[in-house]
Inverse folding.
């Protein structure tokens, strides 16, 4: 049961009649939690929630998929991937299509499985599709740490790792007018909340760091509604997020990765918005640098959806020739994708 | 001892395997005749079903592929309002399969058949080459059950306005147990794999007006609700608060970003009953074997005009509403 204080907040959000407020949740897990809790049905039509570029699968360019497909076709190579990525189409094929053509693609639940598999089968090279944000990158660093400790030469990463602050600047500059951000809870756990403090000052917009419980998300939306037009940061996820973040995880990241420019689906190359393996670890890199090509299918509006220029349901392909079972855009594939969430939860 | 291609040759090794493993466990006077087909008695309205089982690992917390193969088929018969009576067992064995393991699985199958009150009347084995690292086993079971024609027909097309929906226990246990095994995550989650004869038998014996039943397997409750809403052209409303989920399963789902509504069970059913019989039905199910955690979770709304194309609506704990759509993809864990 929810408490009376949350009920009161819910009541205010339902009856809100001020200026329109456009709030972006950057993190894909927030997108999923908002849908799961039925939050859009609880808000006044004057409060708009926009799903930003925080689902790692959704922002991956086709060049990365194409490279993984190419690797999986080699006799001596096995590509390991998380479930979501397997159905995302590259220029011609997805990894699922390649698998049906007898390419070597295996789905795993944890990147650490890569180490075990590579150790047990020295005759093949195991490539892990290491996509994600600051949140998953420390796990990839741990995979390398273990592979190096075990002296494995047959384990590589194909990385497509994005980082947060720069893309938010890009969205504010190129997007559809955002009044405030639900700052990504998982990312903030690693980076700390201070990076959003700086952003707030610079962009003159409010940021609220939130966890993933429905009640906390309601509070966050309420706080952002009140903060419209002001800069400032609130951390409602203090049990997990500190101002300086997870120092150990950051050290591990810095040991193996360095900052780089990164290509985002539909948005192009954004300076300093990614991580690549340092030169000294390049023998563990399956060819991740310069994967910039972005051959999105004609008519796909992923780019406008990701920055909040249009709602998923405004895309002419949405629900017609683009559905979760026959997805053209990555946003309709991933369970964290904005199109997928709109579709399965019946959001309008 | 391991299974070799010789066990599938039809010669001496095949006979020995059948005698030492299958016949030993499945002993009954119909099967013992080892004839080309089993000749059984029965008449009237007959329910027939078939299902193949391919789970790995073969033995998992709370069950094994043998128990699963009996429960799956028995439960499918029960859901049509039939009393299960006979089942068959087709086993496809991979070269290299450990015979002791096979023996355990077949013994468990026999024990589950006895619990469910069915006789395994016919069987077949084949051996195939090993296709992967771990030698596997595929079991197909077909089942026959008899329907009491004096009772009202039961089926997904039969939902009436105001009917109450009841689930017979916690959601997602089997799915979480199997996934936990495969991922090597240590927890205390057990598969709920069980025959539901006691629950269904007691409801029908007490003349509860059961309108529809379906076992909640692959695709989970969400899929069953959508199938029912579509077959009966109605809306369904459920309350998140009332959905029974074991705390360990809830935690497991939270960790992996899975939704218990779309996770499979192997010993749970969604039962739709006349609204006036709902409380009595709940008491009966709670007192039956495997029904202790049953809950009434929602109701049928025959008027479709309110919810446009979204027919299954969930009232969230937070006070919101969301659509429970069809499941897409394979119910895969989210990545971060």
């Amino acid at each position: 049961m929810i408490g009376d204080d949350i009920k009161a907040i819910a009541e205010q959000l339902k009856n809100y009649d001020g200026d329109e407020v456009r709030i972006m949740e950057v993190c894909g897990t927030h997108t999923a939690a908002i849908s799961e809790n039925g939050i859009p049905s609880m808000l006044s039509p004057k409060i708009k929630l926009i799903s930003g570029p925080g689902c790692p699968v959704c922002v991956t360019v086709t060049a990365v998929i194409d490279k993984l497909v190419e690797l999986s076709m080699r006799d001596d190579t096995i590509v390991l991937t998380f479930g979501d990525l397997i159905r995302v189409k590259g220029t011609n094929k997805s990894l699922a299509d390649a698998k049906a053509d007898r390419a070597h693609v295996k789905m795993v639940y944890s990147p650490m499985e890569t180490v075990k598999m590579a150790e047990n089968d020295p005759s093949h090279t195991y490539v892990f599709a290491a996509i994600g944000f600051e949140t998953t990158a420390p796990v990839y660093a741990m995979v390398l740490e273990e592979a190096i400790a075990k002296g494995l030469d047959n384990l590589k990463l194909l990385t497509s790792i994005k980082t947060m602050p720069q893309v938010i600047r890009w969205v504010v500059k190129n997007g559809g007018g955002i009044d405030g951000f639900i700052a990504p809870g998982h990312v903030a756990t690693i980076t700390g909340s201070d990076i959003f403090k700086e952003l707030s000052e610079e962009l003159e917009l409010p940021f609220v760091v939130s966890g993933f419980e429905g009640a906390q998300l309601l509070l966050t939306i309420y706080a952002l509604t009140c903060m419209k037009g002001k800069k400032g940061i609130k951390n409602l996820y203090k049990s997990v997020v500190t101002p300086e973040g997870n120092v150990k995880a950051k050290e591990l990241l810095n040991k193996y990765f360095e900052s780089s420019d990164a290509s985002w689906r539909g948005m192009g190359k954004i300076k300093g918005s990614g991580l690549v393996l340092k030169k000294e670890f390049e023998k563990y890199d399956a060819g991740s640098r310069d994967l910039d090509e972005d051959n999105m299918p004609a008519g796909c509006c992923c780019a406008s959806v990701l920055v909040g220029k249009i709602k998923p349901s405004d895309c002419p392909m949405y629900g017609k020739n683009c559905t979760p079972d026959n997805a053209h855009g990555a946003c309709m594939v991933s369970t964290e994708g904005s199109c997928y969430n709109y579709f399965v939860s019946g959001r309008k | 001892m391991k299974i070799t291609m010789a066990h599938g040759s039809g010669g001496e090794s095949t006979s020995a395997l059948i005698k030492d493993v299958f016949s030993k466990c499945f002993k009954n006077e119909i099967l013992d005749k080892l004839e080309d087909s089993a000749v059984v008695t029965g008449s009237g309205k007959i329910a027939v079903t078939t299902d193949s089982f391919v789970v790995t690992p073969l033995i998992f917390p709370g069950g094994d592929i043998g128990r699963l193969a009996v429960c799956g088929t028995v439960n499918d018969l029960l859901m049509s309002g039939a009393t299960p009576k006979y089942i068959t067992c087709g086993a496809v064995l991979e070269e290299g399969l450990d015979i002791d393991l096979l023996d355990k699985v077949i013994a468990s199958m026999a024990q589950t058949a006895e619990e469910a009150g069915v006789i395994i009347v016919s069987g077949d084995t084949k051996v195939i080459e090993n296709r992967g690292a771990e030698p596997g086993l595929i079991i197909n079971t077909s089942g026959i059950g008899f329907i009491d024609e004096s009772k009202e027909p039961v089926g997904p097309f039969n939902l009436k306005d105001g009917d109450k929906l009841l689930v017979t226990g916690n959601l997602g246990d089997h799915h979480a147990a199997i996934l936990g095994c495969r991922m090597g995550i240590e927890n205390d989650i057990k598969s709920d794999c069980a025959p539901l004869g006691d629950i269904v038998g007691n409801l029908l014996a007490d003349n509860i007006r059961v309108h529809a039943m379906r076992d909640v397997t692959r695709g989970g409750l969400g899929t069953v609700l959508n199938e029912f809403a579509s077959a009966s052209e109605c809306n369904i409303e459920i309350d998140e608060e009332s959905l029974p989920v074991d705390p360990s399963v809830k935690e497991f789902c939270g960790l992996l970003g899975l939704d218990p509504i779309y996770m499979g069970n192997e010993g749970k059913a969604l039962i739709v009953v006349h609204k006036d019989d709902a409380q009595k039905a709940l008491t009966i199910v709670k007192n039956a074997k495997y029904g202790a955690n049953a809950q009434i979770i929602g109701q049928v709304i025959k008027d479709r005009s309110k919810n446009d194309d979204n027919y299954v609506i969930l009232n969230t704990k937070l006070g919101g509403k969301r659509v429970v759509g069809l499941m897409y993809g394979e119910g895969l864990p989210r990545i971060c």
Summary: The first strand of chain B starts at residue 45 and ends at 53.
